[in-house]
Amino acid sequence: MESKLRAARVVPYREAAFAHPNRLGHVVAANMKPTHKSSRVSGLIYRLADFLSDWRGFIATFIALMAGIGIGAALQFNEGFMFGFNIFLSIAAIVISGVILVAGARSEAALHVKLDYLIEHSEATNKVVGLEHLDAREIEEERKRVEAEAAEALHSSSEVPG
User: Fold this and answer.
1) By C-alpha distance, which of 116, 105, 69, 115 is closest to 89?
2) DSSP state string for 102-120
3) Rounded-to-integer distance, Cα 77 and Cα 86, Å
4) What is the residue extent of each domain of the chain?
5) pTM beyond 0.70
6) Secondary structure of residue 12 in the 3-state scheme
7) Model confidence over 30-89: pLDDT tens digits?
8) For position 87, what pLDDT does the model report?
9) How many CB atoms lie within 10 A of CB 142?
10) How far apart are the C-alpha atoms of 20 and 74, rounded to whole Å?
11) Which among 17, 73, 110, 129 counts the fewest CB atoms within 10 Å?
12) Are 13 and 19 spatial neighbours (Cβ–Cβ below 8 Å)?
């Protein structure tokens, strides 16, 4: 398998034969379909995150905010309107924050799998596969160790035998 990976022609991501664009133009692998029952809810969350991260989501959010301010001005920002608008903005902020966190966790998990796969099938050491499961102190210790190892290798390669 390793020799097949090295012999494969590298193509730009958008030209990969296994990939196709979704409705927002993001390329997804054809064989990566969600298989669990909560995929409908997850799909809704990810579509909402895609929408909010696009220019159309920004414009829709801006229009909703301006409409609220316009309605408030027409109602002279009375107490009832201000209470309702404040509740609406608070709920929207909580929902949007949750959507962003869920989408970010999904993206991070996918990157970890991709990196683990690349490390597994390369000449690099696979000692760091699963590093993300350690606590912050252990990760920092590993980072310092790797940096010291790299500095030592750089120093030893720059020394010229006399």
Assistant:
1) 69
2) HHHHHHHHHHHHHHHHHHH
3) 11
4) 2-31+38-124, 130-162
5) no
6) coil
7) 445 555 556 788 788 888 888 888 899 899 999 999 999 999 999 999 999 999 999 999
8) 95
9) 14
10) 48
11) 17
12) yes
